Write the structure tokens for this entry.
Amino acid sequence: MADITRRLGWRHLRGAPTAHVRHHRGGKLLHEGPGLSFWYRALTAALSEVPVDDRELAMTFHARTADFQDVAVQATVTYRISDPATAAARLDFSIDPDTGVWRGAPLEQLGTLLTETAQQHALDVLARTPLAAALADGVTAVRERIAAGLAGEPRLPGTGIEVVAVRVVALRPEPEVERALRTPAREQIQQEADRATYERRAVAVERERAIAENELASQIELARREEQLVDQRGTNARREAEEGAAADAVRAEAEAARTVRLAEAEATRSVRLARAEAEGAREVGEARAQAQAAWLRVHADVDVATLHALTGTRLAENLPRIDSVTVTPDLLTGLLSRLGARE
């Protein structure tokens, strides 16, 4: 949209480099070209602005294939207005001299023209193509047919329009048909996924089996080594037992020999002690006999009274100690009677 400035009864227009401006006054062309800047009077000026940049037109329309299936075509057409004077003469690109806004809708008219033309050629191609072929290779065929049809359309050059490029984004069937078509592919993909899963599981099982075999081989080797260790320990224990038994036998023999020697020494000592005791007893007996004989010889010539006195002395020496003596009248009477009787 042109930039218009108001100054009293005059207007100043400053156009963009991508906009072709045409200024008429009284039926005469005063200014024409892109990026213009000029003054004019709003009451006498007739202005038109034609965009000359590349424009993208997105279009969506429905078509029917050879097997009577509806498909939606999504396409984009890139175009430009190559002859602004012709376009301004054929379409209403006039703008308000006060605001710079288009009085009509020229771009919508161009969009309708391009969409209907492209749709006509796309319908012609798809009407002779089955749905499966259209979904597989129809994008290229539709794009080429639309490009060729727009290039050969006489109305476009007559309107000053040049088609730059055509792109067909997608061909989409109805949702139910699309789901039905996706089912075999999904099943195949699922089968491939299941096959890959099974193969992965088979590989995992094989690896687990190899690991289990390695573990079993390790356990067998470990058991064999443990058996060897047990045998070696048994051999060592048997050898230790034999050596211990031999040592015990030697120790027992030495102990027995020492016991025998001690017994013999003890017997010899006992015999000697017995002999010594017997000799001592004999000598003591002889000494006592000699002493008794001497005692008897000594007392053989002693009178009876002396013997009685000695006997009383010996008896008194052998009597126990008497701390106190109680003499009762009966005892005293008996003693006195006995003494009187002896006198």
